Amino acid sequence: MKNSLGFAALTLLVLILSSPAALHAQATPTAQTAQTEGAQQFADLGEFRLRNGSVIRDFRLGYRTLGKLNAEKSNAILWPSWLGGKSQDLLQFVGPNNVVDSTRYFVILVDAIGDGVSSSPSNSAKQPLMKFPEFTIRDMVESEHRLATDFLHLTHLRAVMGISMGGMQTFEWGVAYPDFMDLLIPIVGSPQSTSFDKLLWTAQIDAMELDPVWNHGNPTGPMDRSLGLVEEIGSMNLTSPAYRVAQTRPEGFNELLAGIRNSAKGDGGVACDRIRQRQAIIALDIPSELVLTTLEQAAAKVRAKLLVIVSPEDHLVNPEPAMKFAEAAGAPLVKLDSSCGHLSPSCISVGPTVARFLTDPSSVNSETLKEVPKH
Length: 375
Fold this sequence. Notes:
The chain is α/β, with parallel strands linked by helices. Helices cover 36% and strands 16% of the residues. It is built from 15 helices and 10 strands. The chain has helices at residues 9-13, 20-23, 87-90, 137-151, 165-176, 195-209, 224-238, 241-247, 253-262, 268-282, 286-289, 295-299, 320-329, 344-347, 351-359, and strands at residues 41-49, 55-66, 76-80, 106-110, 157-163, 181-187, 305-306, 308-310, 333-337, 367-370. The strands form 2 sheets. It has a 7-stranded mixed β-sheet, sandwiched between helices. A hairpin with a 5-residue loop joins strand 1 (41-49) and strand 2. The protein is globular.
């Protein structure tokens, strides 16, 4: 989430989901066993056709694996990256006694399309910058399904889980491939972008495209100024007003602002990556994709056991669609009672709940988890 969702987000996310126990090179699939655990790998998917008919040329999907697949091939967990995040950012949550125990599960961390590791506007030789076609959250899922089936030779997953845009992908997995996994765990994600969400992401895109350096998609230099504005907008929505007021006294505002702006450095390639991923989020509307009219009808398509985790104070990803989806699916809903907003999973430890659901879904019920005051 650094350089995507606000200054200091990465620091907070070091703790995101963590349980108390957790706190104490490129390769082909055939060479996977020789890889160092958690090393960057790539799946070459050739010409990848998107749902809008466009094609990404020489498409590569980045991923990492940790743990071992059991003999029954029943312990695989797929975890895609968040907005602007990379599979490397997810490594901190995987390992013995961590959120996902890699001594028990075979964990697949995936770089979502457009994150700068997988094929993206910033790294495409044949379709650079805005020549890179628009893609959707569903396209991300289709590429991940190809990875799981064609490269890792899996026919089933124990679970799909993700945070923020990773949670959006998790919802998509549930309706696109309802029999492919046992469990779904979307965390501060959504099955549908609301008008407020669209306004936020559009404002960030406008901030980049109105930069004179943008030059109608042919950048003429660094875009630090407009990327800094994107971070200001994101930081304003990343937490709640109450959190910001409590954390930053008026006399500390200039230091906060400088930190936000200094966290945003990049060129046109970085801007293009951010625009394309935000366009994917703006287009997110699972009911429409299924030619249905309501979230309730979409939820009826889900066959896996679902655990939905939201923050009612989330100003970055509106929680209402996820809450409606959970209710319609009869799924447990965990609400995080915290002024941290979208970052509530970093202020309230939900790691134990996630780990328990992975082991015994029936042991998890709807509940509200409250932030423990710091003394």
